[in-house]
Amino acid sequence: MRLIRPSNRRHLTSIASPDSEFISYMNSKARSINKALDDSVPLCNNSVPLWEPVLEVREAMRYTLLSGGKRVRPMLCLVACELVGGQESTAMPAACAVEMIHASSLILDDLPCMDDDSLRRGKPTNHKVFGEKTAILAANALMSLAVEQTLASTSLGVPSERVLRAVQEMARAVGTEGLVAGQAADLAGGRMSFENEDEELGYLEFIHIHKTAVLVEAAAVLGAIMGGGSDEEIERLKSYARCVGLMFQVMDDVLDETKSSEELGKTAGKDLITGKLTYPKVMGVENAREYAKRLNREAQEHLQGFDSDKVVPLLSLADYIVDRQN
Ligand code: GRG
Fold first, then answer.
1. Is 305:18 a contact under the CB 8 Å cutoff?
2. For 122-171, what is each residue's pLDDT tens digit?
3. Are the CB atoms for 138 and 60 separated by under 8 Å?
4. Does 253 contact ligand 1 (Cβ within 6 A)?
5. Residue whose CA lies nearest to ligand 1 atom number 3
6. Are 278 and 271 in contact (CB under 8 A)?
7. How far apart are CA 322 and CA 17, in angstroms?
8. Which residue from 144, 146, 199, 282 could staple onto 97, CB 3.0 to 4.6 Å apart?
9. Ligand 1 centroid vs 198 CA: distance in angstroms?
10. What pLDDT was estimated at residue 182?
11. Environment class of residue 307 by beta-carbon count within 10 Å: exposed (0-12), middle (13-18) or buried (19+)?
12. CB neighbours of 209 closer than 8 A, spacing ≥ 6?
């Protein structure tokens, strides 16, 4: 893939709008990711049809996995791998694994006992179509498939130490140092009382880092590990991805408050109704937008030192996230 470095990218810290070349780059990456995801959950085993109840779980897995997400996380994984000198194909199983974890978390998050949502990506949520029991089974099956996929990278010739390190990073991103911690803090957020605004902001940042940024971070780290990046390269990509992940969630909060359900493909304005702790609530919409822009500049600074041409997709990805409309 050849992305021309726009002239305003000469200084890595400059901010530009995502260009059409980047959008077609993203679409082409999304096409390879979608193909790999499609192949990863077949509806039969070696052409033997599955029993009806098992088939239903596989259909529920495919429903969320293949229902048109933006594929930001797997794309980041592939680009990180290429940035450190690896091939896209080397990181594809890990990229799919990260998207499987994301899909699993969306299914669980939408359940009535969690965020209780009925609309996701403009379609009924998983449990609305398949029922709660099947949705929970599908979410768990996606988690275990994520591990299986990553381990299978050894068959592509990736050294087993890299694969084990990737699985360890992935597991950490899901548990009480990652998604689970963020979700638990988020669910309790509305009931918490804080001494002052700083404490409230600290709690909010904890939620967003764990609920969103950690998986974005894992995507970049897994890609860099699979591509054979040095520890220093992995650390720099991790710092970039943490800023991008946090910025992603700040913008998610802003969009929830400023866009319609039709524009978002999910129930808009829900955070306000449920009294959820969000960045616009704590600092106002305009300050939240400014904060996202600051995080974008910080993210781009972490990329200094990498090849200035190869880094363009990551600069554009950060711009895309801060400017996104859904
Ligand atoms: C054990 C996997 C697992 C999770 C348990 C339920 C849970 C803990 C965590 C929920 C985490 C969650 C849903 C965070 C929201 C992150 C977020 C910003 C989602 C929207 O991401 P996009 O915009 O979605 O990338 P698309 O639709 O484009 O894929």
1. no
2. 999 999 999 999 999 999 999 999 999 999 999 999 999 999 999 999 99
3. yes
4. no
5. 105
6. yes
7. 9
8. 146
9. 26
10. 97
11. exposed
12. 182, 242, 245, 246
Q: With a 6 A CB cut-off, is 174 part of the ligand 1 pocket?
A: yes
CA–chain centroid gap for 97, Å, is 11
Do 288 and 253 contact (CB within 8 A), yes or no? yes
Q: What is the pTM assigned to this prediction?
A: 0.91
Choosing from 211, 249, 251, 254 the residue with most ligand 1 atoms within 8 A of its CB, the one to mutate for a pocket test is: 211
CA of 8 to the centre of ligand 1 (A): 33
Neighbour tally for 30: CB within 10 Å: 17
Mean pLDDT value of segment 216-244 = 97
**Residues in Cβ contact with 311 at an 8 Å cutoff, skipping those fewer than 6 apart:** 12, 83, 303
Q: Is the CB of 252 under 6 A from ligand 1?
A: yes
Q: Are the beta carbons of 220 and 80 closer than 8 angstroms?
A: yes
Q: Is the minimum distance from the CB of 72 to ligand 1 under 6 angstroms?
A: yes
- The two tokens of residue 60 are 């529920």
> What pLDDT digit, counting tens, does each position of 3-59 carry?
444 434 433 333 344 578 888 999 999 999 999 999 999 888 777 778 999 999 999
